[in-house]
Write a structure and sequence with these properties.
Blueprint (H helix, E strand, L loop, with lengths): L6 E3 L7 E5 L4 E8 L4 H15 L6 E11 L1 H14 L8 E9 H6 L3 H7 L1 H6 L6 E9 L5 E8 L1
Parallel strand pairs: 3-4, 4-5, 5-6
Antiparallel strand pairs: 1-2, 2-3, 6-7
Helix pairs in contact: 1-2
């Protein structure tokens, strides 16, 4: 763990900005994710996360601010989520921060709406070892947070 460094991948027109910090437990994915070869982008991240879970922080914050992602990106993100769910400490917390346009945020009034929208995440995390939380943020056109709510822990 001594040499375990942050992983930072700069944004391109087809790939997101990715910043993974093992000291703080903050993971950021922002921008678009439509790479032609998703494995080339996400396999090093998956390898990094496999190392991280061996020495995870008590709280891991996964911030997903992806305005668009393709199917192959979603498959790789699901693999990453599944690995994070294996943090072998039941007292630890894995907190997903999801950023949505405020109009989509406002449409999610009922718990069932939220559950349906995020079923793929819930399905991947159903056997998680750490506690799981989901926080939704409504953002305006300037990408500023104008509303938020904690959905479940």
């Amino acid at each position: 763990m001594k040499d375990f460094q942050s992983l930072i991948i700069e944004e391109t027109p087809k790939t997101p900005h990715i910043e993974l910090n093992p000291l703080t437990g903050d993971f950021i994915f922002s921008g678009k994710s439509i790479p032609e070869n998703a494995a080339k982008v996400y396999e090093p991240i998956l390898n990094w996360v496999n190392e991280y879970i061996m020495h995870a922080r008590p709280t891991t914050n996964l911030r997903l601010n992806l305005e668009y992602f393709n199917t192959s990106s979603s498959l790789w993100l699901a693999k990453i989520f599944k690995v994070l769910a294996k943090i072998n400490e039941p007292d630890y917390v894995l907190l997903f921060h999801l950023y949505l346009p405020v109009d989509e945020f406002d449409e999610m009034k009922e718990f069932e709406d939220i559950k349906e929208a995020f079923f793929p995440i819930a399905d991947v995390l159903q056997f998680a070892i750490p506690s799981i939380g989901l926080k939704l943020y409504g953002t305006n056109d300037a990408d500023e947070i104008v509303k938020d709510k904690l959905v479940f822990v």
